[in-house]
Amino acid sequence: MLSDVAVLALDGGHAFELGVFCEVFGMDRGDDGLPGYDFAVVSATGGRVRTRHGFHVETPHGLERLESADLIGVPASDPDVRHPEELYEALRAAVRRGARVLSICSGAFLLGEAGLLDGRRCTTHWRYGDELARRYPRARVETDVLYVDEDPVITGAGTAAGIDTCLHLVRKEQGSAVASDIARRMVAPPYRDGGQSQYVKRPDITPGTGHLAPLLVWLEANLHEELTVDGMARRAGMSPRTFARRFHEEIGTTPLQWLTGQRVLLAQHRLENTDEPITIVAERAGFGSVATLRHHFARRVGTTPHGYRRAFRGLADDRSRR
Fold first, then answer.
1. CB 77: neighbour CB atoms within 10 A?
2. What is the pLDDT of residues 105-156, one digit of tens each?
3. Whether the Cβ atoms of residue 144 and residue 199 lie closer than 8 Å to each other
4. Is the dihedral of CA 64, 67, 72, 74 positive or negative?
5. What is the H or E stretch that residue 150 is in?
6. Do 155 and 168 contact (CB within 8 A), yes or no?
7. DSSP state letter for 106
């Protein structure tokens, strides 16, 4: 379940990453029919915490508030600051009882110091990747991804990737419709796959270079069609080689990886919101066959389409009884 969220305010912490947690989980969106969270900002001692930007955050809760949380958010902070041992133990205890922890950017160092990255894949901002691997050699650091989900430990890359990381968890627990609605309220992309590169270049867009936005809009409306890289390149007015290079520069992944991610997202939406047979879902999401849908769905979502529909319907029924 994802209903009780506690976020750490850390001495010298970064305000943007703290704000990401507050925006995703701390806003009341009940008027839009979206689920709410029992949300709290927590510090190691309770009381006033100074951010790295010079202002202070008031935190009425101490570490005891972590004892009930389903999710504990860990924003970015100075990797060289040693926090109270009670904080590390509180995080370990939370994971032992089944809670999740989610870090953004350099918040991964706090998880590493608590021993929660040992034996797990993880990520952080690309600037800190080598240092994270050096300090915590038992962690399996991946520096060229947006986020890594090693449930119950989830780590996100730098700054804006924290939004993707939080929305990923919402989508996983509460469905793509809820995550997409929150993203829409935040004017954020509804879905970026965790495996996308952190190194997203933004080339200068000049007349005639073929900006990809119109193509992406068309592709999202035609996912059911048989789409190839050559066909996409022709529609963009580029050679396949130029198109593949430009796509990776602007989007951070390959055309086929992006296409598969969007098709899985569409399949999730149809599984959540329709009673269509799986064969129809596979066809309308552009996979063609149930076997192909099942293959990509399992790799991206970690379950089968049938299992996802059962789990989501059960979650929806549970919410309606509250």
1. 25
2. 999 999 999 999 999 999 999 999 999 999 999 999 998 889 999 999 999 9
3. yes
4. positive
5. strand 147-150
6. no
7. T
Confirm if 247 and 212 have CB atoms less than 8 A apart. yes
Other Cβ atoms closer than 10 A to 41 = 21
DSSP code of residue 36? P
Say if residue 256 is exposed, middle or buried (CB neighbours under 10 Å; 0-12, 13-18, 19+). Answer: middle
What is the pTM (predicted TM-score) of this model? 0.71
C-alpha 138/C-alpha 111 separation (Å) is 12
pLDDT digit string, tens, across residues 27-86:
999 988 899 999 999 999 888 999 999 999 999 999 999 999 999 999 999 999 999 999
Nearest to 121, CA basis, from 151, 162, 143, 150: 150
Alpha helices in the chain (DSSP H): 15-25, 85-96, 107-113, 129-135, 161-174, 176-186, 213-221, 229-236, 240-251, 255-273, 278-284, 290-301, 305-320
Residue with tokens 């007015």: 237
Q: Which of 150, 177, 145, 175 is nearest to 161 (CA)?
A: 145
Cβ(286)–Cβ(263) below 8 Å: yes
Average pLDDT over residues 101-105: 97
CB crowding 214-246: b at 16 or more within 10 Å, else e:
ebbeebeeebeeebebeebbebbebebeebbeb
Tell me how far apart the alpha carbons of residues 165 and 181 are, in angstroms, rounded to a whole number.
Answer: 15
C-alpha 245 chain-centroid distance = 25
DSSP per position, 72-98: EEE----TTPPPPHHHHHHHHHHHHTT
pLDDT tens for 178-236 read 988 998 888 887 777 777 667 544 433 333 334 788 899 899 899 999 999 999 999 99
- Half-sphere CA count of 275, side-chain side, radius 13 A: 0
Cα–Cα distance measured from residue 39 to residue 78, given in angstroms and rounded to the nearest whole number: 24
